[in-house]
Amino acid sequence: MNGTAAPALANHAFLRGMSPDHVIRLADVAVAVCVPAGYRFFEEGGRAAKFWLVTGGRVVLDLHVPGRANLIVETLSADDVLGLSWLSPPYEWQFGAEAAEPAAVFEMDGAAVLALCDSRPEFGYQVTRRMAAVAARRLHATRIRMLDLYAAPGRGGGAP
Questions:
Q1: In what order do the strands lie in the sheet with 40-42?
Q2: Contact 144, 61 (CB under 8 A)
Q3: pLDDT by residue (tens digit) across 36-73?
Q4: Homologous superfamily of 5-150 in CATH?
Q5: What count of Cα atoms within 13 Å lies in the side-chain half-sphere of residue 39?
Q6: Does pTM surpass 0.85?
Q7: For a surface tag, which of 32, 63, 121, 126 has the fewest beta carbons within 10 Å of its beta carbon?
């Protein structure tokens, strides 16, 4: 990707505040992509080699439930990050992901980003710290959904 994409990339919430040099390095391994509704980014159990910075549209994370339609776990939109499994072994998707409507994303090559992380420790720290924050938000959102799902009837979301 050329340097003209770096400003657009720098505006994504995931990268706000990252040094311009780091953003330029990411822009070199990013590809701006528009996908149609119904596009499958990845399937649960597949090899995780990329991640995406969502800039428009909606993408759903889903979970395969045998004998039923896929269960939607979370809906992502502009300024969200799609894909965490590329960052650590076994590099395998834990969910599936599909565009719920046409979506615009920056597609990032996970191997290239990992190589940058290894060769530039400060860059690696920034990426890892930001991905950890995404993971923490997802865990918190999942906890809230579980409380709502399993709340005792008439107890208002599980609160005593």
A1: 40-42, 96-99, 59-63, 71-76
A2: no
A3: 999 999 999 999 999 999 999 999 999 888 888 888 88
A4: Jelly Rolls (2.60.120.10)
A5: 15
A6: yes
A7: 121
